[in-house]
Design goal:
There is one protein chain. By secondary structure, the chain is an alpha+beta fold. The protein is 31% helix and 18% strand. The strands form 3 sheets. Strands 2, 3, 4, 5, 6, 8, 9, 10, 13 and 15 form a 10-stranded mixed beta sheet that branches. A hairpin with a 5-residue loop joins strand 9 and strand 10. The longest helix has 28 residues. It is globular, with a radius of gyration of 21 Å. Bound molecules: fe (ii) ion. Fe (ii) ion binds next to loops. Fe (ii) ion (FE2) binds next to loops.
Length: 398
Amino acid sequence: MARPPRGTGETARTRVVRNPWRPAAGVARDAELMTALDIPTVDLADLRSNDRSRIEVACKAIREAFGTYGLAYVKGHGVDSDGVMRLYDEFRAFAKRPEAEKQRLARPDLWFQRGWTPPNTEVAVASGGQPDFKECYFMAPYDNDPVLEAQYPELFPPNVWPENSDAFRAEYTKMGRALHEAGASLLRGAALALGLAESTFTDICEGGAHVTRILHYLALAPEQVDTGIVWGEEHTDFNLLTLLPGGRFVDPSGKPAPKPDDKSGLFLRTRGTPENPAGVQVRGRPPEGCIVAQIGQQLEILTGGEFVATPHVITAPGVAGWTRDSSAHFMHANANSVLYPLAPFQSDSARKSYGPPVLAGTYAIKTLADIGLAPKSVIDKLGYRHYDRLEAQRRVQS
Ligand SMILES: [Fe+2]
């Protein structure tokens, strides 16, 4: 049994941003399409069984889900949905604490990889992008590996917690671990689905900067409605695999409620096809009791594009005062693993598309600077930093 995974991480932006309220010509976007697309559901009980035919059913679903759509619906996941809602209640209570108290948990020195991320902190990489309209909290559900902590201190910092937050901490950790375990089962199935050894991806995942995030999307004022504000701009995640246990809308009175209109919430974009080169945007609405798993850039790279990272956007409603709670668990490749297509996927085009090879930790540092969570100056960490020593020696000599 592999030791518990390690953690931190975040989502990255790609240059695909377009206001989803105004779809580009040729982009099909309709909540009903989700049913028509028939995104497969993977039952983790099948993967965990010793029945070869059940395992093959799950692998077939994974091949189609991750290969065609970049996402899967997952049942048998073991995540306590009532616990997730309790966690959202806890985070709402935290969000109402005094600004000064929250600011003490905002840690730019940790590149916001733990604790509170204030509104207007994270930005889209894409030109014309805007800060996301949200506040968040990050924590890692497992202890850090001390060696990785020394090598990448900002990717593997200790957790930080608000005062008097035992329930928040307990629910948060429980959810993060359940999502991680579900993701590990899925990664084992993903390896089998591609004809690889079962532990291929879970071995790479061991020692990743895994992190769990809660997000509170902010209410729009009446004058902000229909002005192009997006809760979270369209992007692909930069990690290996993201698990989404499901969010909820909250009405202006503070009560959880069904979505206020058809344009609010999570939409995912499928891979382009000859008929639909821009792909199809579908509402992220899994069957009852299922969670969503989506492919990140790292798994796309390792598979040479066999599995594709899923662009997704979180749209704000067309009415004022509504908010949304949501969460995600980001599983990462080991910070010292090389991101490059694995041997079976090294076609000429994959080498071109995904080269040069890069360490996952280096990739994370660059991406966190790109999205505004780390200062741009951290890019200077990526290479030799001691040229001044020769200068100093020469000064002594003269
Ligand atoms: Fe994301």
